[in-house]
Amino acid sequence: MSSPQEQHIATYREEAGELLAELETSLLELEENPQDSDLINRVFRAMHTIKGSGAMFGFDDIARFTHEVETVFDQVRNGKMEVTRALLDLTLQARDQISTMLAASGGGPPADNAVGERIIAGLQQLQPQSAQPVRITEELSKTADATDTPPRSYRIRFKPLPEIMLGGTNPVALLNELRELGACEVICHLDAIPTLDNLVAEHCFFYWDIILTTTRGNEAIKDVFIFVEDDCELSINLIDDGSSADADPNYKKLGDILVERGDLSPVEMQKILSMQKRFGEILVDQGLVPASKVQSALAEQQQVKQVRQERTTSAAGPAAAEAALSIRVPADRLDHLVNLVGELVTVQAHLTQLAATRSDNDITTVAEEVERLISELRDTTLTMRMLPIGTTFSKFKRLVRDLSAELGKEIDLETTGADTELDKTVIEKLNDPLVHLIRNSIDHGIEMPDLRKANGKPAKGTVHLGAQHSGDSVLVTIRDDGAGLDKERIRAKAIERGLITPTSELTDKEIFNLIFAPGFSTAQKVTSVSGRGVGMDVVKKAIEALRGTIDIDSTSGKGSVITLKIPLTLAIIETLLVRIDRNFFVLPLSIVEECVELTRADVQASHGRHLAKVRGELTPYISLREQFAILDNQPDIEQIVILSVGGKRIGFVVDDVVGEHQTVIKTLGKLYRDVRGISGATILGDGTVALILDPGLLVEAVAMVEQEQFG
Amino acid sequence: MSVSTITETVQYLTFKLADEIFALDVAKVREILEYTSITKVPQTPEFMRGVINLRGSVVPVIDMRLKFGMSTTEQTINTCIIVVEVTLDGDTTVLGALADSVQEVVEMEPESIEPAPHIGTRLNTEFIKGMGKHEDQFVMILDIDKVFSESEMAAVQEAGGGND
Fold it and tell me: What number does CATH give the domain A572-710?
């Protein structure tokens, strides 16, 4: 078990990773809307958080570096600097540098400091002249760069929970950070300290009142406390907004201040005050001010107080509500839950089977109830692992931006359906294939700007990345408006590589699909981006490993579309359970079209060819018995399960169709990794193991064998 | 040679394949099961008998006799599956090893273990950690990680696979 400190560091690393991702997205969005102050604030806050918590957990180098970048963005935030492409380029590089530093601290390769310095130097160059000399000392810049906002005074009551120090937070560091913001008076309260025998040495019993006069506003103060928000009682009150030049230099009365702070109850103060005459009453008594004037002054006092109070509560309101909407759960705990639900589904299948064998109404009722609840539990659990696919989409924006710059092309990435949800593990495994496909579209698909113009297309190319639900799958499409695939070149290449013979008659689709063959690449020159010919077959394998399919279509001169069909989840699927002799197999239900009988007479009538006439249409079929060398007990009447594989109807002959089955997918492990056509196993209600068939790969394997025999 | 790796007194589980006694480090053994029905995975070599359901997990079972060039294990009342944890490629994998019968757990002093002879065992010497002696019988101590190593499995798979 790791120490709490290590856990905090791990959490920091995780959070910083998320923040860096957010930073990247915000920067890229900022490129499109350079004036959006919301985005600028988001960038600033992300960096500030990385810096602040970095310093707290001992990532000093990250904190220092980020601070430099943040300082520049502070200028942007204050409207002293424009958002330019150069600034964004450098900031994105800085983001990468932080990411490298973060990885280096976790045992990755060390970050190159020279790169960091170059980025900082570049950023400093971009800063407006006036601000540059001030930056030498940090303290100065902070007070100098905000001269346009008048200094305001705040009263901060910071009352940490006793356990705050266990979380790795040092309250003194926070107070020091406050001191950096401006003139600061810290009063420490000792009255919460218990007697010695109740004193826990690791707990913090102090709390503080801080009177701070700063030019940096409420947000800056909140930023200081951003990581301890949940671990302390914090109230920040503006006590002097600095705008009223004629404000009473004597400020409020002692009693008012104490009451406002909650140190003295109003009732008590009233009691004390009632002993003396009110200030206003004295004034009226003395005839110095008329009663009405006193009344109006009191009303004013009331009003301002109210307005100020509302301001502070409404500022805290939405943030608090947002925090309650979601909680952070470690992924492995969620995986464990999914596994448990998977086992529950298996047990429930057993229960249902038992209930069916004994005709006891009570047991049947319970079994049905359990079945209903478990299917609901299953759905809920699986949706918990669902993430919007947009989390990966945002990464590709950066990819497109960098690649198009490198290749001298102008390319926009459009995305749709970013909120389409997919299982977390599926999304992770989808990342690399998508990177590859997008790289391909950019490198091979989109033409150079002048060529595009010559062909009457806009100079700027578009790559469109879309996702949408389709039954129990998600369709991910990558469309570009580039040159499209060159059929003749693919054909020539395939003949050269011996993939097809010169006489082969292929449909367009079949030609396009040749690019997925191992070792195929038509790029005439090898670039750093693609063209090494290791690409598309790897992509295809990765997609097939997800039990997905890949399809490509292209129109010459108009562009290409690649469609990935990916199952929603890798954990539990709906299947059709079939039997051959004593072996059970399951087929994905989503592609089952129909089941028909195949009698021995039918087989004889077709002279042993594997073709069946289904409603006047010839349907090829694969005999799984033959394929799997299961020879015993062949029945006279077999069943053909007709599946739609790659857009074609193909039959799979089995002895018997048992029925629908909720299949919890188990892997067959490393030993059986290379078995083609079987993608996993599942456990049936009675405890026997059934194998999950991958129809696409089975068809491919059979086609290959037949080609060897006759082709 | 390989015996130098055995320096401590270790407990071994002994089991029989035909008439011969083999042993493996008990630390590698997770449990011993009675023979249950094994689901054959099609298109795999003969010695890979298939998979079983081990309390909800799918565990591959290997026929040790076929693996060592003997005849197929016939099912008797003593036939059992030794569930072992082996390290494949750095990952721990759970496998079942089909054996004719399980004997006992014995302690063997390092001194009583001799290196395997280079010839004459009719087994790949890589598989054998050493030859021990127990109650006047030779015991072949297996290096189970090597027996199930990936290259070993892949080599046999290529030779024996593709029965179509």
Answer: 2.40.50.180
